Each structure stands twice: as structure tokens, then as C-alpha cells.
Amino acid sequence: MQExxxxxxxxxxxxxxxxxxxxxxxxxxxxxxxxxxxxxxxSLAFSHKAIEGxxxxxxxxxxxLHDNILPQVHxxxxxxxxxxxxxxxxxxxxxxxxxxxxxxxxxNKFAKRTGIECSYFIENDLLFTPLSPENQLHLYRxxxxxxxNIEKHSKAHKALLVARRNNEYILxxxxxDGCGLVKKEEGLGMKSIRQRAVIIGAxxxxxxxxxxxxxVRIELLPPPLINSExxx
Length: 232
Known about the structure:
57% of the residues lie in helices and 16% in strands. It is elongated and about 105 Å long. It is α+β, with helices and mostly antiparallel strands and 232 residues long. A hairpin with a 5-residue loop joins strand 4 (203-208) and strand 5 (214-220).
């Protein structure tokens, strides 16, 4: 009888130990998750501030070139080049211009500037209007940066932009037939694309095979388009 009582007593303490261990484990997992979420929010806030500062600097440089440097330049080709730089630096007016037209413009200017053959396919009924102007700017810069990387690093002969619907997602792919990713570490341009993707909640992948080009794949779920007629 005494041995049986001792057995149940030991079993009770084992049960208390297991429950205590599980509670401590749950508390640890909870606080670890909280810490990870806090770090993620801080990282997102830092990325947002960094990108915001970058856009402000672009604007400042563009104004400086346009207002102070351009009036002093009397060589027409140089003036045209400075104006083109100012246009690239300044954010587009999304109330007047659509991303569809802006993407086509990026491709046309890229081909003219670099001599690299550039094709594009933009789905006719693809709408970017549900996105805020800020998020449209992030997408514009991501595509712009992708073509800058092709120009600087790819040694490509051809480039392609595709923007279309993929089920409920917006899918944007920028690809080339160049050398692909030579270095394992991502450069500043690719890091900037990733930062902007995090800010707008997009998925971005850099798909590369050696000597077989690089594809930047951006996938974004846009917010629903609000129809003012349906609002009571």
C-alpha cells in the first residue's frame, strides 16, 4: 500500500514537472515570437525610412541639376542628358500617368540608351489603380532598378518585361539573356528591390542560372478596387 502511494506521489510530481516544463516552453516561444515580431517591425520601419530618405535625396539632386546646373550648360546633347537624368530621378505623376505606360516608357528608353533589344508585354486590362501612389512608386522603382542592373552588370543582348495577372496576383517579370548572378552576395540594387518589396508586401525572387541570364520575379496581391457606387 505504501509503495502504491509512493508511486502515485512520484507520478504526481512527474505530472507537475511536465506541466511546468510545457508552460515554461510556451512562455519562451511566446516571448521569442514577440521579440521576432518587434524586430521585424523595426526592420520594416528602418527600410521605410531608408527608402523615404533615398527618394528625398533623388528629389533634391534632381532639383539641383534642373535649377542650378542645367541653366549653365549650353551644349544641347549635354543638356538633354541632364534633363533625362532629372526625369529618371523625379517620381512620376501617377494621377496623370499609368504604370502600364510608365513600364513601356522604361523599356523604350532602356533600349534607346543601351542598344540592348528590349521587348515588353503588358496585359491590356491590368490595373494598378487599386495601389496607392506610394506603392505604385515602389513598383516603378523596382522595375527601374532591375533594368539598371541589366545595363550595368548583365552583358545582355536582350531584355524582356512581362506584367500580367496571375490568378488574383499581379505578376511582373524582368529578364535578360546575360551572364546571370556572378556573385553570391546581392548588390545594393537588389537589396533596394527587396526592401521595397517588403514595404508593399510583395514577394520577389531573383532566378538565375550561370550564363543563362537573370529573372526578377515580383508577385503582389493588390487591395480590392473600391467602387464608389457600392458605398451606401
